[in-house]
Amino acid sequence: MADLSDTAKLTAPGAYPGLNVTFHAGGILEVVISNQKTLNSVNDKGHQSLAGIWRDIDAAAGVRAVLIRGEGRGFSSGGDFELIEEMASDFTALARVWREARDLVYNVINCGKPIVSAIHGPCVGAGLAVALLADVSIAAKNARILDGHVGLGVAAGDHAAIIWPLLCGLNKAKYHLMTGESVSGEEAERIGLVSLCVEEDELLDRAWAVTRKLANGSPSAVRWTKYALNNWLRMMGPTFDTSLALEFLGFTGPDIHEGLAARREKREPKFMEDAPI
């Protein structure tokens, strides 16, 4: 019998700010990124939640599979402006978010329970990290997958270096991560960035079907297969750590301030003419 205290902790109101968590029959945990006023952007508390919840899910008895999605019109629009401003001006905040960003990636990779992501609309930032690191990623055709780091004036850190080259190849990864050009759900499936692409009105049905299939499988067989396959990602740990360090170094420079101002003013940024190194 499932230890109800574990699932009760996960689903307690306010336990994970920015996330709505529901436990369903069959051992399925549904995690919904929810901040509809800003297209499910992630503030400081939400970022902390996205980083920490996977360790708790891994330890929770009774959870057999996880479905993560975004509420309303999209998956997630990424970190909110206030969080980015705080990181660019406060070293303590920068160090805190660096650790959360590191933990988010490694906690998803090391979570033993299988994870399915259902991606629609904009999918950016920390939300994108979870969406693409999920064991099965299912995108609607209207999904707009975007790693927007370079547009802000910082290196593509988060999850990008650890998984994009493995999913879609180094050349495609370089193109999208260095130009900041978005990827539609259809194109993401074509290049191997996501597992499946479906019509938007079929997205949740397909995601739930896959999640149920994983939940109904042999827990040891499914989880141990995931563990072995994720060694491909663990081998890329040093590359990921470097990319994350360079991203956060960028938050101490001038380009992040110009990139953020350009986003707010909806104009093209005017970055430095050259890099110092």
UniProtKB/TrEMBL annotation:
Entry annotated with the keyword Lyase: yes
Enzyme Commission number: 4.2.1.17
Coiled-coil boundaries: none
Keyword tags: Lyase
Lyase as UniProt keyword: yes
GO MF annotation: an example: enoyl-CoA hydratase activity
UniProt xrefs under NCBIfam families: PRK07327.1
Family under the similarity heading: Belongs to the enoyl-CoA hydratase/isomerase family.
Record-given protein name: Enoyl-CoA hydratase
Organism: Deinococcus cavernae
Lineage: Bacteria, Thermotogati, Deinococcota, Deinococci, Deinococcales
